Amino acid sequence: MSENKHVLSILVDNQPGVLSRIVGLFSGRGYNIESLCVAETVEPHTSRLTIVTIADIVAIEQISKQLNKLINVIKVNELTGEDFVQREMALIKIKAKPEYRAEILRIVDIFRCKVVDVGPEHYTVEVTGDEGKLKAIIDILKPMGIKEIARTGSIALFRES
Questions:
Q1: Residue 140 and which of 50, 58, 97, 150 are 20 to 30 A apart at CA?
Q2: Domains of the chain by range and CATH?
Q3: Residues 125, 75 contacting (CB under 8 angstroms)
């Protein structure tokens, strides 16, 4: 079976140890978590975990069943193959040599990003979009000299019908 990227959206009780048990389930089965993002939902006692992993469909079904057995897990949704909205945010610190400053600002404008910090030798840019958009801007900025990148990982929700 071929392994594909899968996006899981998991609603859990907002309690200590829940994240640790979920991550332990993945590592115990030998699956890597490509990205993980967790935060409170509109309900203060509930959090949403968005996990991206690479596995075959049988493994994902197994993982979902095991996740549903955990006491503090409310609901597990596999978004892959469904109609959903997915975004990621990145902060990219770029060496801003004088000869590249105007070009960096043009790229920021084209990608609809924002410059969130300016220093004598750098720009820090905030980029929000899907994985393809982040990859594209990183590829374009790399030759100018990326100093650092911090990424949030994916967040996702089902689209309304």
A1: 50
A2: 4-82 (3.30.70.260), 86-158 (3.30.70.1150)
A3: no
Residues 6+ apart with CB under 8 A from 21: 70, 72
Structure tokens at 15: 């309690």
Q: What is the pTM of this model?
A: 0.84
Q: Give dist(CA 132, CA 107) in Å, integer.
A: 15
Q: Compute the half-sphere exposure of residue 61: CA atoms within 13 Å on the CB side of its CA.
A: 3
| Long-range interactions of 103-112: CB distance < 8 A, separation 24+ | 103/144, 104/141, 104/144, 107/137, 107/140, 107/141, 111/136, 111/137
| Residues constituting the chain | 161
Amino acid, single-letter form, for residue 18:
V
Of 31, 2, 124, 17, the closest CA to residue 72 belongs to: 17
pLDDT tens profile 53-101: 998 888 899 999 999 999 999 999 999 888 999 999 999 999 999 999 9
